[in-house]
Known about the structure:
The protein has 140 residues and is an all-beta fold. It has a domain at 31-79 and 92-129: Immunoglobulin-like (Sandwich), CATH 2.60.40. It has no helices and 10 strands. The chain has a 4-stranded mixed sheet with strand order 3-8-7-6, with no helix packed on it. Strand 6 and strand 7 (69-75) form a beta hairpin. The model is unreliable at 3-21 (pLDDT under 50).
Amino acid sequence: xxxxxxxxxxxxxxxxxxxxxxxxxxxxxxxxxxxxxxxxxxxxxxxxxxxxxxxxxxxxxxxxxxxxxxxxxxxxxxxxxxxxxxxxxxxxxxxxxxxxxxxxxxxxxxxxxxxxxxxxxxxxxxxxxxxxxxxxxxxx
Length: 140
């Protein structure tokens, strides 16, 4: 699985990856948009993707798979109390967004998602032909 960045041609015609920039504002929605931290683990039968999305409830998540691209979008559940006057604030209200190009080995029909205490877990099962299997040896 990879997170692709746009390739920009150099003056000599070679392709070089462009540095990723933090997404701070999108024009299609109000407020900042954050990039959640993600871990991806490959296991024998599947890939496990965990994403930190604090302040998001399951109903605030939208997970889409379109043309081999998995998108995670989330909206924070809590709005700040207007009566509060923050002295110091590191958490900000906003959305979350992340996209991944899936390998052909993933069985798209069997992808599952679960939310646990601000952590999204996606299980991306591998197609049967890409899972390891044991071949039995028969003795004669």
